[in-house]
Design brief:
The protein has two domains: about 5-250, TPP-binding domain (Rossmann fold), CATH 3.40.50; about 270-300. About 35% of the residues lie in helices and about 15% in strands. The protein has eleven helices and nine strands. It has helices at about 10-25, 65, 70-75, 75-85, 95-105, 120-125, 150-155, 185-195, 245-250, 270-280, 280-300, and strands at about 30-35, 110-115, 130, 135-140, 150, 170-175, 200, 225, 240.
Length: about 300
Amino acid sequence: METRLDRYEGARERKIEQLKQLIKESKYIVFLGGAGVSTESGIPDFRSGEGIFNQESGLSYRPVDIISHSFFEAHPEEFYDFYRRKLLYPKARPNKAHRARVRLEKQGKLKATITQNIDNLHQMAGSTTTIELHGSVFRNYCIECKEKYDLDFIMKTKGVPRCPKCGGIVRPDVVLYEEHLEHENIDNAVKAIKKADLLIIGGTSLTVYPAATFAQFLKSDRVVIINKSSTYLDLQAMLTIHDSIGAVLDEAISKYIPRKKTQAKSTAKKPAAKSTSAKKPAAKSTAKKAAAKSVSNKGKKKE
């Protein structure tokens, strides 16, 4: 919910200016984002009024139960029916939030993006520092032979996708309910936050663990919350903005992107040029000797 403070005239503008100043002062920024980052790309979140968990599944099961490990194993047909209809958005493209965050990365300030999303939009926008806590729908693998498949393979198959090589079930490389996150991703996320001098949390209700606890690893109180609804960290954060994350980041993050430094032109050829010119006197000397011999020979013939 929007806070009353955000409704006062000029409140939003002052908060944007404060965010700009925090970004300017920071050298090691980490961004932690959730489903709200992708809603402006047409991908629904999970828990809002229009979120996936509050939509009709089209089956006799609840959405929250369908995307669990036990349901996947017991009812793969129903799982993939729901999965293709509700969780795959191959035409979705990065929005202002993704592009603004990449600008911050290219400016050398954003060192890591920790995402709970599985849509690959951060990477599409150009991110090279994204840590995917819950995997990606763009990666799939056979549970038997581990052969890898892309999203297009899942979209083109019907029913339960089977591996053409061994016949095993091909599953998405995403973390389902009841499954553990990759320890390496958690470790990398925590390491990044421990180094951060500013943590920006956006588009997440902070109700999914362990991501909801990551802020505790920040060594300062420099936390910014950007989310349309309230979170348990709102009152503890240095700055809280209840607004569209795309609009806020696009306005707060400079459009400037530094040019890549070009290498200085090589001067290796100059010594070679001098070496060539140094040989010229020798060539003239050889010519004079030849001329002298010619005169000498002519003299001998006359004698």
